[in-house]
Design goal:
Strand order of the largest sheet: 4-12-11-10-7-5-6
Structural class: alpha/beta
Largest sheet: 7 strands, mixed
CATH superfamily of the domain at 82-265 and 281-295: Type I PLP-dependent aspartate aminotransferase-like (Major domain)
CATH class of the domain at 82-265 and 281-295: Alpha Beta
Distance between the termini: 46 Å
Strand content: 15-25%
CATH topology of the domain at 82-265 and 281-295: Aspartate Aminotransferase, domain 2
Number of strands: 17
CATH architecture of the domain at 82-265 and 281-295: 3-Layer(aba) Sandwich
Helix content: 25-40%
Order of helices and strands: HEEEHHHEHEHHEHEEEHEEEHHEEHEEEH
Number of helices: 13
Shape: globular
Length: 390
């Protein structure tokens, strides 16, 4: 029987698909914003489950909700009504100020559904996305993703997708004709290098969509649920999406996604889309607990305050190895003067886990529950590593 950590990681490598480039680290336990490996070493988690751990690891409210629901009912497809689902859907719709929701299992699924819904609602076939945008790896979501290395091995993809520069209203206006079903856009480009929307940009995108009969899909898979200092990041800009896609932290770490449907979309025709596990009671119980915590604590305001402090610190004290800092709330990116991969390896050795965003951007997505002293310790370790690296 294989029991040692080294043997288990070798076993995992031998049977895993090969699609993931794994780090030399085996995580066995987490609490809040802290992770532990097989040797008991402590790490400050600024990966945050790639954005899926806004409430941290094993948040007590989520754990309790899941344990209660597991003892009652785990599976109930939307073929039947369910009281937990009903109450969660109502709470999520109120929070987003949108009338209806389709529940699924991931961000890629949510974006895939949004593209289908846009075609169904408008009768149009084509889409506009943005350069540097990332929306998932399924065939439709991949089609509106910018990075060619993700797309080209799987072409041909869906219909015509026109990619325009982010934060450029003029280029959008030039391609937004009567064949476009929807424009899909992030509020902060995560995988694309941590580029926030400039003031007024999203409002202009919304205006153009309304003017020309297209729907506005706002992808908040990474920016939702308090990450940027508001419950949903588009609330900074005062807009109302026609379709809002959510996932990652929606259920505190359980697989879940959602598409909120606005007034310009309305109810979907029966059997027009579906998901076996979408809206299962277990995920709904977790999602309901997440919403309750975020709406009844100071975590969202705290994310804005802490994030602003770190951003301001680095704007005035930029490490030698960095060119620029960008971000919003606790979604922070440092554009480096060299490759990010060796920096991530050194940080891991120093007890800080972080993400890339492209080849030269260091991305931080710490849980919103991170202790302030742990956040600033991570900041100072990053500064030391960057000052030595370049």
């Amino acid at each position: 029987m294989v029991t040692s950590p080294v043997d288990l990681s070798t076993l995992e490598d031998s049977r895993s698909s090969g699609a993931y480039l794994k780090r030399d680290l085996t995580i066995v336990r987490g609490e809040g914003a802290i992770l532990y490996d097989t040797d008991g070493n402590r790490y400050i988690d600024c990966v945050g489950g790639q954005g899926a751990a806004n409430l941290g690891h094993c948040h007590p409210a989520v754990v309790a909700a899941v344990q209660r629901q597991m003892a009652e009912l785990m599976v109930c497809p939307e073929l039947f009504h369910n009281p937990v689902r009903a109450q969660y859907q109502a709470a999520l719709c109120r929070a987003a100020n949108m009338p209806r929701v389709f529940l699924c299992n991931s961000g890629a699924e949510a974006n895939e559904a949004a593209l289908k819904i846009a075609r169904l609602t408008t009768g149009r076939r084509n889409f506009v996305s943005t350069m540097r945008g990332f929306h998932g790896r399924t065939m439709g979501a991949l089609s509106v993703t910018w990075e060619k290395t993700y797309r080209e091995p799987f072409e041909p993809l869906i219909g015509e997708v026109r990619h325009v520069p982010y934060n450029n209203v003029e280029r959008l206006a030039a391609v937004l004709d009567d064949t476009i079903a929807a424009v899909i856009v992030e509020v902060v480009q995560g995988e694309g290098g941590l580029h926030p929307a400039q003031p007024g940009y999203l409002a202009e995108v919304q205006r153009l969509c309304h003017e020309r009969g297209a729907l506005l899909i706002v992808d908040e898979v990474q920016t939702g649920f308090g990450r940027t200092g508001t419950l949903f990041a588009h609330q900074h800009d005062g807009i109302q999406p026609d379709l809002l896609t959510l996932a990652k932290s929606i259920a505190g770490g359980l697989p879940m996604g959602a598409v909120l449907l606005g007034e310009r979309v309305g109810a979907l025709p029966p059997a027009s889309h579906g998901s076996t596990f979408g809206g299962n009671p277990l995920a709904c119980a977790a999602g309901w607990a997440v919403l309750d915590v975020l709406q009844n604590t100071e975590l969202i305001e705290r994310a804005r305050t802490l994030g602003d402090s770190v951003l301001e610190h680095w704007r005035t004290n930029l490490p030698n190895g960095a060119r620029e800092v960008r971000g919003r709330g606790l979604m922070i990116g440092l554009e480096l003067r060299g490759k990010v991969a060796p920096v991530l390896k050194t940080l891991q050795a120093r007890g800080v886990l972080a993400l890339p965003a492209g080849t030269m951007v260091l991305r931080l997505l710490p849980p919103l529950v991170i202790e302030e002293n742990d956040l600033w310790h991570a900041v100072h370790v990053i500064e030391e590593v960057l000052n030595d690296a370049f």
